[in-house]
Structures are given as structure tokens and as C-alpha cells.
Amino acid sequence: RTMSSTTVPPSPALLQPLNVPYRLLLGPGPSNVPPRIQAAGAQQVIGHMHPEMFQIMDDIKKGIQYAFQTQNPLTIAVSGSGHCAMETALFNVVEKGDVVLIGVKGIWGERAADIAERIGAEVHLLTKPPGEAFTLKDVEKGLSEHKPSLFFITHGESSSGVVQPLDGFGELCHRYNCLLLVDSVASLGGAPIFMDKQGIDILYSGSQKVLNAPPGTAPISFSEAASKKMFSRKTKPPSLYVDMSWLANYWGCDGKPRTYHHTGPITNFFTLREGLAILAEKELRLPTVTTVSVPVGYEWKDIITYLMKNHSIEITGGLGPSAGKVFRIGLMGYNSTQANVDRVLDALRDALKHCPKSKI
Ligand code: PMP
């Protein structure tokens, strides 16, 4: 045997075709990836420093600013899962010896405390039984007792199914000279959150939950106050990979030409961009009146008349500039039920089968 001959044989299983079963993913993440996002992931890779890639990263930044409702220039996606964003927040903003207060009402507070301990921070826990949320009074007590420089809280506590109300928390923390760090991995896009209005200093999320992109990227944003603390620290952050001075440059946030830091997950950036684009499109939809494009080849009036005559359902056509282009379907209060959604969809299906369709 020569030195160059292999001694480890190829695995027979590996030589079989890739087999991924279809699963309906109704757990707390990942969620199923819609075809449009799958298609984005099937695109050919380009270089991580190509101008087109920087444009896509700029689009992502804009998408996150919209999703977070923030104007923070320091808004990026880290190359990793939700935990990576969690570490990015804590590794950059917290230094050894800093006092931090962690709201624990499930596993995510425990994880944040673990990370903060690894940095050598003085960690205090504010705990609530799983299933409950913190009140402003609870938090004020912790702030006045421990005088932390950072308070961590989870918005969507996926381990207990509780959403944490956030109004007033930013203002309260700032009164105590404390930064507010919020985990919205499980909630962003599904429960309202307003980073700037709610005074959140650091907010992060994940790609594989409501955004429906594959796991592997995580949006994060820092307020001016958080940036100030982060960029005036005495020591380097313990991780080079998530050092925000480097990442700010990679994401074009520091006004300097971008230089190589690491090779970003290019394909995941494509998919994250599409997830954010879909969210931006969805959020413009009025929940009480759903507009549906009139299918090509049909007369809008035929369908409306068919629904009324055969299903006793009223829906209407467009109005003004949307006349002839859309149907308008109202789902208001008492009428806003799953059963009515199913009924109108069945009726529309029936109408498409029976109304005249022009050949085009
Ligand atoms: N925070 C919350 C609220 C989560 O639900 C999760 C994922 N279940 C995480 C953080 C960690 O995210 P990841 O698994 O992407 O690292």
C-alpha cells in the first residue's frame, strides 16, 4: 500500500441518493420553507465580496429594519442560528465584571445567563414561573436592587408559550442607566414588536421561525446607546467571529470600504432576503379586508354573481383604481372564522369550475 491509497472506504449510505422526507413542521421551529424561498436557495452561489452580494445584504438590512421597526444603522444578520445572535449581543455589549440582570421565565433566560457567566459577568437572575410574564414592577425591583448595565428578556418564550408585553420596559431600563436586550427568535413577524418605539437597545431573532427561511442566519440590531457601550469597551470581545467591529464593516455599517472578515452563508442570505421580502409584503395586508387578484381569463362579475346565486355569499369587486382587478373579501368580527374562510374558498373553487373562462 502506498501512502496515497485510501484506508477508509466510502460509506455505502452516502452513495445512495439524498433522501429528505416531506414533513409538515408544526413544532416551534424550523417551519416549512415556502417554494419562493426554496427557489432563492437554489440559485447559484456568487462571491461573498461581489457588489451584487453587498446589494443583497443591504436589502436584508432594510428588511430587518422594517421587521424590527427600527432606524438603527447598525442592523445586520449574523452567520449562525439564534444562539449565535444571542452570543453576538452578549459577547459585544458585556465585559468581564459587568453586572447583568437576566429575566428567566423559561429556558432562554437560562441560556442567556450561561453565556453571560462564560464572559465573567456578574449575573443576577429575575425569575418567574413558566407560563407567566414579567411586570414593570418586577423589573423595577430587580433594576434598583442590582443596578445592572444590561437587562435580558425573551419576547416570545417558546418554552412556555407566553408573549412578554414590552411597552414601558425600555423607558424603565433607561431610567436606571441599563440597556434592554430582547430575544424575539420565536416571535418576530408573528407578534407585534417595535424596537425604536419600545426603546429596545438590542434585538435579535432567527431565520427559521416566522420568516420561513432555513436556519443559519439571525437578524440583530443595536441602538445608539448599545453601540456606544459596545464600541467603547476596554477589552476585545472574546469572539473574533461575532466581533461587531468586524461585522459592522462586513455589513457596510461603518462608512469604510468592506474588507474580508469571514465567508458569509451566501445561499442562506438569499433565502433570508426572500423571507424578509414576504414579511414586508404580508404586513401591508389589511387583516379585515382581503384582496384577491381576479384570475386571468375570468370576468370578475361572473364570479361574484355565481357566489351570491349558488352559495349565498357576498363578496365584492374592486373599487376606484382597483375596480375590475380584485375581489374584496371582508372578514370582520363575528364573521372572522376559519369555517367562513373555508366556505368562501370552497365557493371560489366551485365558481372557477363553472364560470366561463376565455381562452387566451
Ligand atoms: N430563543 C428562542 C425564544 C427560541 O425559541 C430559540 C429556538 N428555539 C432560540 C432562542 C435559539 O435559536 P436557535 O435554535 O436558532 O439557535
From TrEMBL:
It is an enzyme of class 2 (transferase). InterPro entries: Aminotrans_V_dom, Aminotrans_V_PyrdxlP_BS, PyrdxlP-dep_Trfase, PyrdxlP-dep_Trfase_major, PyrdxlP-dep_Trfase_small, SP_NH2Trfase/AEP_transaminase. The modification N6-(pyridoxal phosphate)lysine is found at K209. It comes from the Eukaryota. Residues 45-283 form the Aminotransferase class V domain. GO terms for biological process: glycine biosynthetic process, by transamination of glyoxylate. One of its GO terms (cellular component) is peroxisome. Its EC number is 2.6.1.44, 2.6.1.51. Its cofactor is pyridoxal 5'-phosphate. Keywords: Aminotransferase, Pyridoxal phosphate, Transferase. GO terms for molecular function: alanine-glyoxylate transaminase activity; L-serine-pyruvate transaminase activity. It catalyses: glyoxylate + L-alanine = glycine + pyruvate; L-serine + pyruvate = 3-hydroxypyruvate + L-alanine. Substrate binds at R328. Gene3D superfamilies: Aspartate Aminotransferase, domain 1 (3.90.1150.10), Type I PLP-dependent aspartate aminotransferase-like (Major domain) (3.40.640.10). Homodimer. Belongs to the class-V pyridoxal-phosphate-dependent aminotransferase family. This is Alanine--glyoxylate aminotransferase. It comes from Leptobrachium leishanense (Leishan spiny toad). The gene is AGXT.
